[in-house]
Amino acid sequence: MTEDYKILYDISKEDFETSKLLLENNFYPQSLFYFQQSIEKLIKYLGLKDGIISTKDLSRKISHNSSLIFKKALTKYKSLNNSIVDFDINKEFQELDEIIKKTPDDKVLEVILKNIFDVLKNKPELPFDIEKIKNFEDLYQVLKKISPDMPQLEELRRIDNNKLFKPIAEKMLQDFKASFDEYIQGIIILFYINTISQRLVSTVRYPELDQMINPSEIFNKEHSLVKELPTLHMALEYSLETIKTKENEKTI
Predict the structure, then answer these.
(1) Distance between CA 252 and CA 250 in Å, rounded?
(2) Residue 207, CB half-sphere, CA atoms under 13 Å: how many?
(3) What is the pLDDT of residue 86?
(4) Most buried among 93, 131, 160, 223, by the most CB within 10 A?
(5) What would the mean pLDDT of 7-32 be, rounded to a whole number?
(6) DSSP strand E in the chain: where?
(7) How far is CA 72 from the centre of its chain?
């Protein structure tokens, strides 16, 4: 596959900057919409980059339901690490969706923000012991387990076996170990903010059909999501930066 998917990251960044600008100028529903769009495109970028979805899936199966990408990623991950990931993915996602639908925005937001801060304070649990990665062969085996379809795997091994490229291989190993935690944190945070932003795709753009209320009357400066949008922006920016950092390392 070509790397045309990278344009989704660029558009996600543009949508993020647009959301911040709209918030500064008090266009709250519009700011929330571009916030949601930035998250959606970043998730789709990850899905395409890691081979979780194809470009055909974007308009057919996925559309605006970016949670499906997380579900597909977990399904793939579970097939590789069945003893580690022990839960019914469809059931978990359905229960989460029901809870969010039945819970007021401010309560959902409170839980999400708490989870985000918890993620930033604590290292996420990895499907391998990063301390046991001592050399490039260890890294190769880990990558082979978690991303067996990664096209660069054999190239990495050739680099490690070439004395001229040995310093590059060692740097890649150290960079991988140093930044992996932040990368996982960025993805987990992205999952959390997506759970509350996904349903905004229509509600912030169109009036409620039964009462024909302008979204700007609902999503005003007193709305919980609007109040916490600067914090949510910081969370999204963290995800954008850590995910892009990992992409840059991959192309060294």
Answers:
(1) 6
(2) 7
(3) 46
(4) 160
(5) 96
(6) none
(7) 13
Torsion of CA 47, 51, 52, 53, to 10 degrees: 80
Confidence of residue 37 (pLDDT cuts 50, 70, 90): very high
Average pLDDT, the chain: 75
Q: Is the pLDDT of residue 70 over 80?
A: no
Residue 216 lies in a domain: yes
CA 252 to chain centre: 22
pLDDT of residue 88 exceeding 60, the answer is: no
CA 245 → CA 35, 95, 252, distances in Å?
A: 21, 33, 11
Identity of the amino acid at 13: K
Task: Print the domain residue range for 155.
Answer: 5-81+89-243
- Domain-embedded: residue 249: no
CB 108 within 8 A of CB 196: yes
Helix (H, G, I), strand (E, B) or coil at 126: coil
Instruction: Tell me, yes or no, whether 250 lies in a domain.
Output: no
What are the residues whose beta carbons fall under 8 Å from the beta carbon of 103, sequence distance 6 or more? none
Residue type, 225: L
- Structural domains in the chain (count): 1
Distance CA 31, CA 25 (A): 9
| 252 domain residue, yes or no | no
